[in-house]
Amino acid sequence: MALVETKQLDHIVSLLKEKRTGEVSLADMVALVEITAQSLQAFFQTIDASICRELKEIADYIGKLRREIGALQANDMRRARIPAAGQELDAIVKATESATHSIIECAEAVMAADASDPLRYKAFVDERMLVVFEACSFQDITGQRIAKVVETLKHIESRVARFAEATRVDDARGFASEKEAAESERKVRLLMHGPALAGEGNPQDVIDDLIAPAKPDASQADIDKLFR
Amino acid sequence: MTIDPSIPILIVDDYKTMIRIIRNLLKQIGFEDVDEAADGSEALAKLRQKKYSLIISDWNMEPMTGYELLKEVRSDMQLSKTPFIMVTAESKTENVIAAKKAGVNNYIVKPFNAQTLKSKIDSVFAE
Question: What's the total number of domains in chain B?
């Protein structure tokens, strides 16, 4: 259907032609507006339908977004899961610290012990070694705690992945806050990468080569290496 | 070369256990005069109060890192000649190169053993 009906337009044109020479009365103006409104009725109806369709699409999207935000369970993450994971990590740090403290204490005691009486010394070392074994039991519990933290991370990962997939929103560039930006900039500027994973970083022998002063002249041994 | 075991050494690390480990290793090597600081700024304050013959420092510390401490030490007329060994988990090439450019004498990557620590100290005092 045409947006403006040509029949109505013809009416307007003929009316204007009629009134070209004479004066235009108020009644003529009303008639003109009426015809114009009639001729554009189809256009307005089309606009209404497309706006309705767009508004419905927006409403559907908002509804979907609301469902996805609900499915994200952000409050459950913020109030329960993330704090619980943080508590587990705190407990892991404390347990490893405590175990390390016990082990180092035993080692220091053994190193400082009087070894002049071998039997007494052996009994003392045996007793200290039992404490070391006991301290090492922390690994079983921390392993279980780490498994719980990993489970939480997987839960968050799956929720966030579903949300990102459903909303298909592009990530904003930059940082969420000035504090975050400043922290990141400082880490980059001061080369604070943290411990490297297996395969990343350099072993000690490579670092030794990097640190070694540059040799202005190659030694015979260096030259020999080139010919092997 | 024999190093005087009475030389004062400053260990800089924010992790108390690591300080304790290094202190014990140094004790095994024969060094007894060992002080400690928890970050670069605390270390700087101690370095300005007492003359140390060796600094053994971690990299990742707050608020002042070991890298910043190294640069501060090298730019201070009174401290610039103090031997500096970096002991850190930062093992990327750019870290080692940056530390070398800033004037580090040696670089040990964590975890390490007593033999590595001893050989690096020997190497620093042999320079």
Answer: 1
CB-CB under 8 Å, B17 with A191: no
Q: Measured between beta carbons, which residues in chain A are less than 8 angstroms from residue B67?
A: 190-191
CB contact under 8 A, A207 and B20: no
CA–CA gap between residue A174 and residue A181 (Å, rounded): 8
> Within a 10 A sphere around the Cβ of B28, how many other Cβ atoms?
12
Q: Decide which of B16 and A52 is more confident.
A: B16
B74: domain CATH number is 3.40.50.2300
Mean pLDDT of chain A: 85
pTM of the shown model: 0.73
Q: Is the peptide bond before A213 cis (omega within 30 degrees of 0)?
A: no
Buried b (16+ CB within 10 A) or exposed e, B66-78: bbbbbbbbeeeee
Q: Is A98 on the interface with B (CB under 8 A)?
A: no
Separation CA A30–CA A10 (nearest Å): 17
Can you tell me the distance from the alpha carbon of A53 to that of B110, in angstroms, rounded to the nearest whole number?
63
Contacts of A204 in chain B (CB under 8 A): 108-109, 112, 116
Say if CB B86 and CB B110 are below 8 A apart.
no
In chain A, which residues have their Cβ closer than 8 Å to the Cβ of B97?
A: 210
Domain ranges, residue B38? 9-126
Asked whether residue B2 is domain-assigned, the answer is no
Distance (Å) from the C-alpha of residue A75 to the closest C-alpha of chain B? 32
Closest chain A residue to B60 measured between Cα atoms? A192
Mean pLDDT of A142-152: 94
Q: Assess: ipTM above 0.90.
A: no
**B100 contacts A211? CB cut-off 8 A:** yes
Task: Quickly count: other Cβ atoms within 10 Å of residue B120's Cβ.
Answer: 22
